[in-house]
Automatic annotation (TrEMBL):
GTPase that associates with the 50S ribosomal subunit and may have a role during protein synthesis or ribosome biogenesis. PROSITE patterns: G_HFLX (PS51705). The keyword Ribonucleoprotein does not apply. Its main location: cytoplasm. It holds the Pfam family GTP-bdg_M. It comes from the Bacteria. Residues 198-365 form the Hflx-type G domain. The gene is hflX. The keyword Kinase does not apply. Monomer. Associates with the 50S ribosomal subunit. Belongs to the TRAFAC class OBG-HflX-like GTPase superfamily. HflX GTPase family. This is GTPase HflX.
């Protein structure tokens, strides 16, 4: 279907710094991505520009340098630490006579290698097809042009049009199957809400130690490795917290700077666990010099998936790599735990994490009494009934519903946004 050069395992890396961007991409992180994909780096080519070149992304001279390097080291592939347009990819491939893949394509390839569950494979395929849809080029040349006249009439649609139609149909089929997965996950969340079981979701930059922490807390045996995107498929386990009872801990995919938008869209069902969580454990590699930038990158993704308002507890992990590892809890001015310093690998400070989680979750349960008039209580009561948060209800002589509800603060905040007028006017306490 695709007239492209075959990919290989030996690569030339290209990394360009743009002075006008104000933020230089991290070359070392790109090299880790390449290593995680199982590709050998033969040569790294760097350079600086004011802005991308429209034809090759890099300048004409730098493009010739890349092509010469490919021939000199006999590389199979060129990997760019940037997002290339389809035209730039094709121009570079014609010049280098080998496959050219940008940062987005590399991340998608890593995800394709890591996918284990049926859902994960579907999500990765969806992201790959969306990325590929703009990169379809000349297929079988003898079918490419439609012609007229006796003996020259074409097939009715060009091969490129056929490829695009097949691609669209496959994307629609995957979306239908993922929609079923999303409904199944939604049923699971409803069951947990009815049972009043809080959900704790692990988020963080890739390779921050989320799966190691998850295994330390739950003894789940989830695959954990010192590589980017070791975890792809989400895993949920039940844990016990003092004064709170059972809770669900969810391990999720790691985030990264410039995470491909197609990937975020494809993993919508998985990331829903993060959106609907009662509290997020934002795991941070405390030994990484760029941990503040990593925090910002994670926060940007949380905004993109509408999870930025979920209460968050920061977990400074890997303190065993610091000079003076001291497990501790940092609190805000009101004494609420905000940061926990620990080492998931050595198990240092895990008890402090449980203590902080217990405090945060116990303090997030609110109780309100409402007096709702007859014309409204049918709809409002059904909402509370579905959330399984009704503690007590009775009717006064005027026929008003006196109802007491007990639920998580985050659920009350979401409800307040949807039913602001009703709840504001009829809250008693």
């Amino acid at each position: 279907m695709f007239d492209r050069y075959e990919s290989g395992e030996r690569a030339v890396l290209v990394h360009i710094n743009f002075t006008q961007e104000g933020e230089w991409a991290d070359l070392s992180e790109f090299e880790m991505l390449v290593s995680s994909a199982g590709v050998s780096t033969l040569q790294v080519i760097t350079g600086s520009r004011q802005s991308p070149h429209p034809k090759y992304y890099v300048g004409e001279g730098k493009a010739q340098e890349i092509a010469a390097a490919v021939r000199a080291v006999e590389a199979d592939i060129v990997l760019f630490n940037h997002a290339l347009s389809p035209a730039q990819e094709r121009n570079l491939e014609q010049l280098c006579q080998c496959r050219v893949i940008d940062r987005t394509g590399l991340i998608l390839d890593i995800f394709a290698q890591r996918a284990r569950t049926h859902e994960g494979k579907l999500q990765v395929e969806l992201a790959q097809l969306r990325h590929l849809s703009t990169r379809l080029i000349r297929g079988w040349t003898h079918l490419e042009r439609q012609k007229g006249g006796i003996g020259l009439r074409g097939p009715g649609e060009t091969q490129l049009e056929t490829d695009r139609r097949l691609l669209r149909e496959r994307i629609k089929a995957i979306l239908r199957r993922l929609d079923k997965v999303a409904k199944q996950r939604e049923q699971g969340r409803r069951a947990r809400n009815r049972a009043d079981i809080p959900t704790i979701s692990l988020v963080g930059y890739t390779n921050a130690g989320k799966s190691t922490l998850f295994n330390r807390i739950t003894e789940a045996g989830v695959y954990a490795a010192d590589q980017l995107f070791a975890t792809l498929d989400p895993t949920l386990r039940k844990i016990e917290l003092a004064d709170v009872g059972p809770a669900i801990l969810a391990d999720t995919v790691g985030f990264i700077r410039h995470l491909p938008h197609d990937l975020v869209a494809a993993f919508k069902a998985t990331l829903q666990e993060t959106q609907e969580a009662d509290i997020l454990l934002h795991v941070i590699d405390a030994s990484d010099d760029r941990f503040r930038e990593n925090i910002e990158a994670v926060n940007d993704v949380l905004v993109e998936i509408d999870a930025s308002e979920v209460p968050t507890l920061l977990v400074m992990n890997k303190i065993d790599n610091l000079d003076n590892p001291q497990p501790r809890i940092e609190r805000d001015d009101e004494g609420v735990p905000k940061v926990v310093w620990l080492s998931a690998m050595d198990g240092i400070g895990i008890d402090l994490l449980f203590e902080a989680l217990t405090e945060r979750l116990a303090s997030q349960i609110v109780e309100h009494s409402l007096c709702i008039p007859p014309q409204l209580f049918g709809r409002i009561r059904s909402i509370f009934f579905e959330m399984n948060c009704i503690k007590q209800e009775e009717y006064d002589p005027e026929g008003n519903l006196l109802i007491t509800v007990r639920l998580q603060q985050v659920d009350w905040s979401r409800l307040e946004k949807r039913e602001a007028a009703v709840l504001r006017d009829f809250i008693v306490t």
